[in-house]
Amino acid sequence: MVTAIATLLVASQSTASDADVYVKSLAGIPSIYVQVADVTGDLANAGLTTATLQTDVELRLRSAGIRVLSTSEYQALPGNFYLSLEVIGLRARTGGEGIGYMAAVVLTFVQDIHLDRRPGLSLPGGTWTYCGLAAGATTEVIRNQVRDQADLFANAYLTANPKK
User: Fold this and answer.
1) 81-94 and 122-136: which strand pairing?
2) Mean pLDDT of 154-162
3) Starting from the edge strand earliest in sequence, which strands make up the sheet with 34-36, in order?
4) Phi/psi at 111 (5° precision)
5) Going along 15-96, which residue ranges are E strands?
6) Which of 51, 45, 12, 41 has the alpha carbon at shortest distance from 149?
């Protein structure tokens, strides 16, 4: 699993979707719903929780002046758009001893995509993504990576949706 995470991240470390077209895909989105995948395994055993990561991302967005939707507000809106966070990690060991944690942190803005060649067909797809690697003695390093990536998304969002 360590090799898989390292390979994934070496290949995608530079996927900060700051290219103009990806940032432009965020234009007109009035507010953001945050969806965090369940934290499991070694990270959950170390005390890292889905709720903590949800709060970390939402706080960064709110601090940047971005309105964050509750679940009920999101469900009442037409369309499909949300900020998805997935953290996949493990406790690194050497000689049976735990030496710290490493994780892949993937933050993706997902929204409905409509295909010109298939009018009427709509499917969810990621239009802005950032993949990062966190490694350190405690899970706090992973939380810092999540916060940093939330800041990157907030910057892209605010570039596409400048305050009037």
Assistant:
1) unpaired
2) 95
3) 34-36, 81-94, 97-114, 122-136
4) -150, 165
5) 34-36, 81-94
6) 12
CA distance 48 to 37: 12
How many angstroms separate the most distant Cα atoms in the chain? 57
The pLDDT of 22-38, averaged and rounded, is 94
Contacts of 1 (CB under 8 A, 6+ apart): 90
pLDDT in tens, 136-155: 989 999 999 999 999 999 99
pLDDT at 73: 95
Query: Using CA atoms, how far apart are residues 90 and 45, in angstroms rounded to an integer?
Result: 10
More confident residue, 41 or 94: 41
Determine contact, residues 23/160, Cβ cutoff 8 Å.
yes
The three-state secondary structure class of 2 is helix
pLDDT of residue 1: 46
Residue 107 Cα to chain centre, angstroms? 2
Q: In whole angstroms, give the CA distance from residue 101 to residue 92.
A: 5
Return all residues near 31 (Cβ < 8 A) that are at least 6 apart.
66, 67, 68, 69, 73
Which residue did the predictor score with more confidence, 90 or 99? Answer: 90
- Nearest-angstrom CA–CA distance, 74 and 58: 14
